[in-house]
Structures are given as C-alpha cells and as structure tokens.
Amino acid sequence: MEMEVLGFSVHEIITIVTVLSMFTILLFTKLRTDLVFLGAMAVIYLTGVLDAGEAFSGFSSTSVIVIGVLFVVVAGMTHTGVLQWIVKHLMGQPNTYTKAVLRLMLPVAALSSFLSNTTVVAMFVDIVKMWSKKLNISPSKLLIPLSYASGMGGICTLIGTPPNLIISGLYANHTGHTMNIMATTIPGLFCLFIGVLSIIALRRLLPDRKAPESAFEATTDYTVELLVPSDNPYIGKTIAESNLNDVHGGHLIELIHYDAVISPVPDDEVLMGGDRLVFTGQVDEILDLKDSHQLVNADHYVFSMKEIDKKRQLQTAFVSFGSPLIGKKINSSDFEKKNNMVLVAVSRQGTRINESPREVVLQPGDTLLLECPRHVDFNKDTLKSQLYFFDSMAVANFSSKTFISVAIMIAMVVLSALNIMPLLQCAFLAAFAMLITRCCSPDQAMKAVNWDILMVFAGSVVLGTAIQKTGLAEQLAFGILDVCGTNPIVVMTAICFVGTFATEFISNTAAGAMFFPIMYETAEELGYEPFPFLIALMISVSSSFATPIGSPTHMLVYGPGGYRFSDFLRIGLLMNLIILAANIIIVNLVYPLTPLAS
C-alpha cells in the first residue's frame, strides 16, 4: 500500500511539488521555458510517477505533431503576403474610433483563427503604429485591442490556438472521439462579438499614451556634436588616450572624418583635426568637454533620425519580457560590441530618460534608440531573445501565390471540418502543398518550426497525464464539488474562473493541459458528458487580458504602446469577467449539458 501524507500519495505530492516549482521558476527566474518543462518531465520520470512511455508521450502526441506541422502551413501563408492583402483591402481610412476598432479587430481575429497569434500581432504592430498616425489616434488606444483580437480570434477554431489542440487531443485519447475543427467556432465568435463591443464601450479605460519613439524625434535634445579644432592638443592621440569614449554624462556614439562615419568608435581610433564627434546623454554635462578637451561647437548639426551614412541607420527596439538585459546597464554587457551597435538614447513610457544611456538600468518595455549597420538580421536568435525590432518585420509582396496559400488553408479546414480525413492528415497534406507550390521554401519551413514551443507543448501534455494518473485530478474534482456543490453550471464557471486567472501567469498551453483532467473528472463525477465543459475550458484558458505577461502578444505590444503594467489591469480584469460570462452562457446554449449514458 502506497504511503500517504496529508491525504496525498507520494506520487501526488511529487506531482504537486513539481508543478508548483516549475511555475515558481518560470515566474521568478529567466531560465528558458522549454528547459524548465524538460526538467519537469525528467523529475516525473525519474521519481517513477510515470513510466518512460508515459513520461515522453508528449513527443508522439497527435496534437503536438499537428502544431509542429501547422508551423509549416503558417509559413506558407506568411511568406506569400496574406497579411499585406488584408491590410491593403480591409483596414482603410475609418473616420471614427469605433470604425477603426472594427476594421482592426475583425481581420486580426479572422487571421488568428488559422495563423499563429504571435506572428499576426508581430507583423501588425508596425502597421498599426503607422495607421494610428494617419488616423490621429494614439497607438496605445489600438495596440491592446490588437492583442485582444488575436487571442479571441484564436479560440474560434481548434487550430487557432495550441490549448484547443492539446485539450481536443487529450479528449480524443480518453474517449476515442475526435472533436470537429470548428467545434469552438460559434462560442468563439460570440465571445469575439462581446469582446469587440466591450472594447468600444470601455475605450475610456484604454490609456492615451505617447508613442515611445516620439521621445527620440528631436535628436538635438540628447545629442551633442563637437568639432576638433586644428590646434587641439589631443590630435594624434587615440580616443582611449583622450578619454573621449565614455565621458561624464554620456558617451561617444559616432566620429565623422570628412565623409567617413565611424560607429561604434574603437578605442584605438586616432583623433584628427576637423573630426566631428557625436555624443549622447545629458547635454549640459557633455558640453563641459569644450573646456576640458578644447573642443568647439559644430557649425551645423548633421546627426538626426535621417542618418547621413548609407551604411548606418537609427533603429528603435523594445526590451522584451524575459530579456537578459533587464536589470542591467548596457555598459555592463557586451551587447554593443557583439552586435556592432551603439546605444543612443532610452525612453520609458514615452519619455526619454535624461541621463547617460549606458548608465540606465533597463526595464521591460523600455524603448532603445540604437545606431547600427543598415543591413542587420534583426530576427536572428541572439537579438530576438533580447530585443524586439518591429521595424524589421518584412511583409511579403502580394502575388498569385497569396491565393494559392489561402486556398490550401481553406481546403485543409474544409476537409477536416467535414470529417473527410483527420486533422493530422489534412495538416500534412497542406504543409506538403505549401512546399510543392513554393509558397515557402524548405529552409523557410524548417525555420518556421519553433522547437522550443513544441517542447513546452509536449511537457504540458505529460504534466496533464501525471495529474490524471496519480489520482490528483480526481481528488481535486471532489474538492471542487465539496466547495461548489453539484450544480454543473456553477462548477463549470468556478473551474473556468480559476483557469482564466491562472493563464494570466502561466502558459495557456500548460493551463489547458493541467486543467483538462480536473475538468474532465469533475464532469464525470457530476454525471455529465465532459464535452461542453471542455469547450468552456478551451475558451477560458485562452482568455488572458489582465497582465502583459499573460500572453506573448501582450508582451509584443507592451513596449510599442508605451504601456504600464496597470494599463492591462484596468481594462483586463473587466474583460476577463465579461468574456467568462459570455463563455458560460454561449457554451450552455450551443452545447446543452447531457447526462452520461448509464
């Protein structure tokens, strides 16, 4: 007989401790998410909670494989200009905020029903920023609706968001019945409709913030250009010997020798008469160099957002959540040297920080103005893990392949929705068609597969299995029934309520996998078919509105919108409750509760 502690078996306690430890690590450390999930899987296996087949079953899970194949299908859509076509034909020039919200949220939701939410939002951020200027609307009024629309659109199909696939896959494993790809469409569309109306009604709760990059428009406010006169005593000495690289109140970002622009400026660069030195930081303190180093004011100012050198450019970037730069000063890292970039200025919540940029301790959402080479791969992994460079997101040109990729996606959905063939087969055929028709190249297809995310999905499935097998799900189900009673709608609401707020802090995929066995067991204990309960769960774990860390799409818009953490709380808490109520109402109308067959 297995030993028990406080009513829990040893394996249940191991599972509880593993799950709690995993989420503590994710919340309070910067360890890679995929490694944390892999570590949790290892603990579950090594302690005997699951055997080898069960502990690594996530890698062979149908839902995880479908997600991996769909990355290739999405790559075909992305590289054929589908987004550009949507923007060109549907966004237009609305004359009111209400029309702007509708023109933005509906196309984004439609795209997110079939494409990766993160991909859609990342490619729309720059578009919305430019669009908001034309409409004379603050970007902060549109970027939160953009992120919300992608999340609400994702729940409208099984392939729109990973939790839907994970939960439907687990349901198929338990019952032998597969869910239709459009199972969540009617409830999802209703919640989207309510969500769009709520955004319009609650628009006063959306912040009206300046665009962060607007703090950089007047470069003369934070940069100084000084000339080296022909009789300067430092001529012939290096920058290091002259102590000119890092000076009091700022640092040297550029040296202009005739028509040659040198940036970053190496320490061994020799100073010559007529050189133009560009410093950034606190202007009043930097001007002391006129006395200490016998420099003079430049006769005209050439450094601006329109860079004079064709080989260099000024680029804005945003410090992402989880970035290793958070809590550090740029001068304490090798970021500038490693990436051939120079930090020019830092703004926070739309206001430039008036001190030496290299001395600023960086926070999530900070906007950086960087001088960098004109041809830089902003999407390489080393840069993407630290900063988001939205201006670098290239959108493919519209062509005949746009129609082909859309036709392939529609065919995949129709074949699956009509149960002509399983979703996994449809996804493989669609991915193959994308490659054959050259909507994406094999190289683009492989780069599109996010192996880190697949590891998280696989780990989520395994943790859900552990919760089920150890009996923890059953115990939690009985505990929920003891607290909430036996009214099925009350119980469904309670679990969805907890799921909605849990996903504000943890991956929605992990939340879906972990709440699945609890919801499934609870429904069966009540004597009802689990299907409606699981549809409600799918919507609830993808309805995170109240924190910027609740969804990768929120993190994408956080910096560009100049938001504060409280901005999401103010409107998001109400949105959570509104969508929760809409979810429970529509699911019970579309899928009436059915008693289990005796």
How would you characterize this protein structure?
- The structure is a single chain.
- The protein has helices at 10-28, 33-46, 52-55, 62-78, 82-91, 97-112, 117-135, 140-154, 162-175, 185-201, 283-286, 289-292, 335-339, 381-384, 400-417, 423-436, 442-448, 451-469, 472-484, 488-502, 508-526, 531-541, 552-558, 565-590; strands spanning 4-5, 8-9, 223-227, 246-247, 250-257, 260-262, 276-281, 296-297, 312-319, 342-348, 351-352, 367-373, 387-388.
- Helix 7 packs parallel to helix 23 (552-558) and helix 22 packs antiparallel against helix 24 (565-590).
- It is 52% helix and 9% strand.
- The radius of gyration is 27 Å and the shape is elongated.
- The strands form 3 sheets. Strands 3, 4, 5, 6, 7 and 8 form a 6-stranded antiparallel β-sheet that branches. A 5-stranded antiparallel β-sheet has the order 11-10-12-9-13. Strands 1-2 form a two-stranded antiparallel ribbon.
- The chain has 24 helices and 13 strands.
- The relative contact order is 0.15.
- It has 598 residues and is an alpha+beta fold.
